[in-house]
């Protein structure tokens, strides 16, 4: 972090203390070399976004120094890395110095999460603060944004609709319906399990001993009486029979031993 703030951000990659240890000094130009070993002629590594303003450079360096002091809290001691999700990394890797699109994604992630938490507490707010309360109105008031009547009406309809849906789920008919659905789901699972046991289906794609079998790739279902195992295979015998799969079978007309 100290090398990043002092040298790398200004496109300086070699200093008295050494060089940047988190990237190669030469970049591949043929797009065929490995990242760790550049064998082609290549070009000198250059920082993508260079900070040219001295004021911003000092601010960036101060922020890097703060992060370096908290390295034991951010970087995992065994993995040797910090938080990789830039949207969630609002507490780690220099969020104030990211590009605008990444900063907007990060803020959108935080806002969506907080809105979801507020919406999840609407039942408590309805019971404690009354049916007229909505967290959106409170948010607008904190941001000094005027709330137009159409927004109030829409929020009120949403609150009433949500409350009616919750009350409907508490009725005896809804509870009985949920119980019936759970029972039916369990019975369906048991029926499927028993059906699979009764079928005794063996799926196979052939083995090493099926060298003489056909390779046309067609799927064959062999109905075997007396409750034997039904074989579903991707191969069939060369003679075209669906009762066996090998030419060495005694019923196969292509059996060499019979001739």
From TrEMBL:
Region ranges (Disordered): 194-227, 240-259
Biological source species: Desmophyllum pertusum
Name under which the protein is recorded: Uncharacterized protein
